[in-house]
Amino acid sequence: MQHYDQARFYEDESPAYEPLLSEKFQRTVEVEDSPLPEELTRDELELPGPTEPEFSRHYVRLSQQNYGVETGPYPLGSCTMKYNPPFTEDAAAVPDGLVHPDRSPGSVQGNLELMYELQEYLAEIGGMDSVTLQPPAGAAGEFTGIRIAAAYHEANGESHRSEVVVPDTAHGTNPASAAMAGYDVVEIPSGEDGRVELDALEAAVGDETAAFMLTNPNTLGLFERDIEAIADIVHEAGGLVYYDGANLNALLGRGRPGDMGYDIMHFNLHKTFATPHGGGGPGAGPVGVTEDLAKFLPTPQVEQSGDSYELVEPELSIGKVHGFQGNWLVLVKALAYIARLGEEGLCDTSAKAVLNANYLAEQIDIDIPYEPFHHEFVASAGDIDAADMAKRMLDFGVHPPTTKWPEIVSEALMTEPTEAESKHSLDRLAAAFNRAAEADDEELHEAPNRTTARRIDQADAARNTRLSWQAMDEDD
Amino acid sequence: MSSGSPFAPGSDSERAEMLEAIGVDDVEELFDIPDGVRYDGEFDIDARSEPETIEHVAGMLGANDDLTEFLGRGAYDHYIPSAVDSLSTRSEFLTSYTQYQPEVAQGFLQALFEYQSILVELTGLEIANASMYDAASALGEAALLASRVRETSGDTLLIPEYVREERVSVLENYVAGQDLSIERIAMEDGTVDVEGLEADIDEGSLMVYAESPTTRGTIEERLAEIGEIAADHDAMFAVGSDPIALSLLEAPGDLGADVVIGDASVLGMPNAWGMGLGMFATKKSYLRQVPGRLVGIGEDADGKRAYTLTLQTREQHIRREKATSNICTNQAWVALRTAMHAAWLGPDGLLDLAESMVELPIELADRLDEITGIRAPIHDRHHFREFVAHTDQPAPAIAEDLEAEGFAVHAVDEHELQICVTETNEHAADELVAALEAVI
């Protein structure tokens, strides 16, 4: 981050931050002689209006204050911050594909073919029978999947099923999606080995169970070895088994959720299939289902009919989960990535992702309570506050792992290096871990020192909430 | 062709060194997957070189017909400045994730803070979040917000007849688990039948929704009255709009709106098969019930200004089943582009664009009205970007014939076409008029 300070005009008293657009360029324009009657229009509009050169410098400066995958290692656990190859941007920018969503199916055969091909690729990779591309993010995929489960139970005359079961290590989106779909969430504690305990599951499921949601490998990176027995227990109780695809990067070509007894799954195209995370989104969360559930998928589905493709409404569709077809550009990028890698590239991806996590773990001198892990592991910072340790790691020019979660590991450092790091890069990342772990209290509390902003007082920002430049003018 | 992934560095000897450090002979030993569920097949997916991949994608997409689109109804095409493309695709923005470590994410946080601020000005409300997926999901979240903050109120959502069915279907999914029901409000000449609403609304109403501009391109002139009717029955008032229209229209927050939703990607994104950006703005009194991420301003250890995600205790990664929403990954990059586009245009550029979106549809409608067999616009209202025309002949057949002539328009009813015109297709208006004359 040092390059940032060196690259700009600097005075002792000058602030570290880039002034807001509003502080440099705010202008007020009166609304006069508009083609609408005055009573329908605003009186004035007050917004920034930089010239283009000023505008460009503003955003370049902001970009220089931001850490991305091309800046350095980004080992956020369960986020799969892998390299995003730029050719996928070119594929998404092909002008022929940038069409309006209400075009007649006959006039957009190219888009439909691409969607069909991606549906087929994902079905094969996940071992599922049918896939919808509509959910615009992983959590939207979970919500879609749970709505499908609800429709399935309703069709079977079992609408009374009111519970969704999750392990205590589940991603927060799992219980949140189930609750949003109207279900009561039943959380079961993990066993001593960090996996689902069959007795606990057996006790939790029953006549009220609509679904059990389970990531595999789970958030500790452990493969749920009892997955077949788990699926049997849930199915016997009449529930469905849902696969959270956040950790699919560990399994490509080694295991398919559809073969393990899962009924419904989502894919995170922005994780496993390398589409850029964009500072928080857009992503895409396609959902795959078994044959029995295909009739409940969102509408429309793309189907092949002879040489052409058509949009079809599944028989008992749950309806729409996105206003149109989902995040199209993300779908194109993921299709391009899969088509580039092919079978061998996809399998190598998981091999290298798992190799990298295990190698990194070997190089760091920090306790990792649960093994054998796959593409990610959860280390424990022990006596050190995991958040402090993360801030200290920032000073070594790397992005730290996800901190303080999952809670079954104290002071958790949930680490997923992905396949994109070289051995050299992993060595550097390990050194950052080890040096941060050796830091004394003062160094930990002072950190970070070499970033654009130093430690930010989050509690104060939450107490004195200001969410816009307009609010900054209010009294502090 | 390499047998591995080009994006997974490491020569064979380097990988061997890593395996040795771990203490295994083969990477497959690291996969702790029981034989019963171990996949022993191969994907039927061929690898391609980079140029072959681009050719594969471009080859498929090339099968699309090259039509000039006069399509709208919730998805709109505007000119995207080159600077927005080049700056938003800088990899520090594009390849970053959610700002969990704000000290190394000040740039994106500031851009999102600026996006929130721009929406505050445009909507006239006090707070905006850092994005939802699209207008439909933002409407769903508005309904869920209403059910949280109006606990003493009813359970019926009043949705105008003109709203897109797809948007209503998404809303149905969002509220299906919360025992809320949807009732449609009748339309009177392309806008809400305000008298009908007043007669129908009762204490069972939880939320009233209206759009301006509407899906049919009309401007809802009686928003304030609709808002008063909602308030009189303790119902939340949600307004659907977009940032270009809001540059000119009176801010909904000044007309009684409690929430403003819509697709903000009309700024920042070209037509992309419906990929959007859910705008979500509301009152500060609902702060702790807002869905999605919020960027706030604060100070770092040196007392300098700094930005951070704030009030995260509302969110799923902390609150789990008690979170205000399940949303995690959002549309942050699109929000960045929207803020960029707004700043590039500036207030005068935005206002000019909005004013031309009032003028263009009427100019085109007047020309269509001169064609025998077409009456346009059918609604005696002000319009924005688009309008509905009556056709004596069946509209679907006309739309089909127009497609053969190279134009895409909506057939929205047996005798209704809907036509959308912006600065990106205005140049082809003469040809559209000529084609319509030819096919009728």
Count of all domains of chain A: 3
The CATH homologous superfamily of the largest domain in chain B is called Type I PLP-dependent aspartate aminotransferase-like (Major domain)
Gross morphology of chain A? globular
The order of strands across the largest sheet of chain B is: 2-10-9-8-7-3-4
Instruction: Supply the CATH class of the largest domain in chain A.
Output: Alpha Beta
Q: Main interface pair?
A: A-B, 200 and 185 residues
Structural class of chain B: alpha/beta
Any idea of the CATH topology of the largest domain in chain A? Aspartate Aminotransferase, domain 2
The CATH class assignment of the largest domain in chain B is Alpha Beta
Described by its quaternary structure, the protein is heterodimer
Radius of gyration of chain A: 25 Å
Description:
- The complex is a heterodimer of chains A (476) and B (440).
- With 476 residues, chain A is α/β, with parallel strands linked by helices.
- Chain A folds into 3 domains: 2-64, no CATH class; 87-340, Type I PLP-dependent aspartate aminotransferase-like (Major domain) (Aspartate Aminotransferase, domain 2, 3-Layer(aba) Sandwich), CATH 3.40.640; 350-462, Aspartate Aminotransferase, domain 1, CATH 3.90.1150.
- Chain A is built from 16 helices and 14 strands.
- In chain A, the strands form 4 sheets. Chain A has a 7-stranded mixed sheet with strand order 3-9-8-7-6-4-5, with helices on both faces.
- In chain A, a hairpin with a 2-residue loop joins β10 (301-305) and β11.
- By secondary structure, chain B is an alpha/beta fold.
- Chain B folds into 3 domains: 12-58, no CATH class; 68-79 and 347-439, Alpha-Beta Complex (Aspartate Aminotransferase, domain 1); 82-339, Aspartate Aminotransferase, domain 2, CATH 3.40.640.10.
- Chain B has helices spanning 12-22, 50-61, 82-88, 91-94, 106-123, 135-149, 165-175, 194-200, 223-232, 243-246, 316-319, 332-369, 395-404, 429-439; strands spanning 68-69, 127-128, 156-160, 181-185, 187-188, 191-192, 205-211, 236-241, 259-263, 278-282, 295-299, 305-309, 374-375, 386-391, 407-408, 410-413, 416-420.
- In chain B, α6 packs parallel to α7 (165-175).
- The longest helix of chain B has 38 residues, at 332-369.
